[in-house]
Amino acid sequence: MVDIILVLSVLLCSAVITAFSMPVLVRKLFAAGITGDDWNKKGTPPVAEMGGLGIVMGVIGSLLFAIALHTFFGYNFALIEILAAMLTLVIIALIGTYDDLFDMRQDVKAVLPMVASLPLVAVSAAGSTAISLPFIGPVDFGFFYIFLLIPLGVTVASNLTNMLAGFNGMEAGMGAVIFATAALIAIANGSTEMAIISAAMLGAYLVFLRFNWCPARVFPGDIGNLLIGAALASAVIIGNLESVGAILMVPYVIDFFIKAANRFPKTPGHYKDGKLYPPEGKVKGLVHLVMKLSGGISEQRLVMAFIAAEALCGLVAIALYARAF
Questions:
Q1: Phi then psi for 187, rounded to 5 degrees?
Q2: Which end of the chain has fewer CB atoms within 10 angstroms, the N or the C?
Q3: CB atoms within 10 A of CB 262
Q4: Please, are residues 21 and 208 in contact by the beta-carbon 8 Å criterion?
Q5: Is 24 within 8 Å of 218 (Cβ atoms)?
Q6: What is the DSSP letter of 38?
């Protein structure tokens, strides 16, 4: 059984650390000239970039707090799995930081997260290699799970959440829904480690959303975007609920296939009279499809539509996996 007090303590710790770090970080980023243009606003105003550093502070700080509770107060969970997840997230944060500062080549960035999966590979080599599939049950993938599916899971998930981005509140809003869902399912299935990771992420992204909501004061950057997919992959791998992660990734997968058909363009929406339209009327991503179907949509409504879509995926996952509820 998952200790709810432990999970709530981690969530609160993550939220508090992020809340204290973000205002200072935003000022420092502006002072250092680390900004990006908000292309979906009139006049493309500059906004502080690399706000994901504040998210990392909240997540890693709260996971260290959980470790302290385990060490000094006897809260029970698999310490080695939490340490493996932390190391994976730190490596992803380093990759995101380098990319935000130096603009890494796309092909390198696409495969580099495999390195971050190594701690999870090491932990999983001594654990279960089965994946629980809806309506089917556990399927054992053996060797392929450890050395193929885990690296691919971390790499694909982190790249997908980094692609569906660029609108105020979208990444943080969808991320908050993802980790709220994952936390509930973890609690229902008795996975303390998955619940701890999800709570740490949820607390940080809920607070970050306040700074990132339209009009944004800060962008998450690749740090914050890559972290969503990597943390989700880490949580569901450790919790042995990989299919939950697949369900929560559905909007990102749809966006990937649309962008792949258009050779992965980097095209924001076309801003006109307070609304966003697909550039040149062409659908080159899932956001453009929503813009086209709506005949033009405000950024806030667009973001709310994607948060609602993610919430729908969350409800499906809860219906399939949260048996205790």
A1: -65, -45
A2: N
A3: 13
A4: no
A5: no
A6: -
Average pLDDT over residues 50-56: 98
Query: For 216-261, how does the pLDDT look when each residue is reduced to its tens digit (9 = 90+)?
Result: 999 999 999 999 999 999 999 999 999 999 999 999 999 999 999 9
Q: One-letter amino acid identity for 125?
A: A
C-alpha dihedral (266, 204, 71, 80), degrees to nearest 10: -20
User: To the nearest 5 percent, what fractions of the chain are helix, strand and coil?
Assistant: 70, 5, 25
Whether this prediction's pTM lies above 0.85 is answered by yes
Nearest alpha carbon to residue 81 among 67, 62, 91: 67
The whole-angstrom distance between residue 3's C-alpha and the CA centroid of its chain comes to 24
Question: What's the token pair of residue 193?
Answer: 């480690």
pLDDT greater than 80 at residue 314: yes
**Distance separating alpha carbons of residues 227 and 159, to the nearest angstrom:** 9
The token pair that represents 138 in the structure block:
């556990």
Alpha carbons 43 and 62: distance in angstroms, whole number? 38
pLDDT in tens, 71-84: 999 999 999 999 99
Q: E-assigned strands of 143-293?
A: 270-272, 275-277
Query: In 10 A of CB 103, how many CB atoms?
Result: 10
Burial of 152 (0-12, 13-18, 19+ CB in 10 A): middle
Q: Are 154 and 88 a contacting pair, CB within 8 Å?
A: yes
Distance, in Å, from the CA atom of 305 to the CA atom of 229, rounded to the nearest integer, reads 20
Please give the mean pLDDT across all residues of the chain: 94
Return the amino acid letter for 275. Answer: K
How many residues in the chain? 325
269 DSSP assignment: P
Q: Using only C-alpha atoms, what is the Rg of the chain?
A: 19
Residue 324's pLDDT band, with cuts at 50, 70 and 90, is very low
DSSP states along 74-122: ---S-HHHHHHHHHHHHHHHHHHHHHHHH---HHHHHHTHHHHTHHHHH
Q: Where are the domains of the chain?
A: 4-321
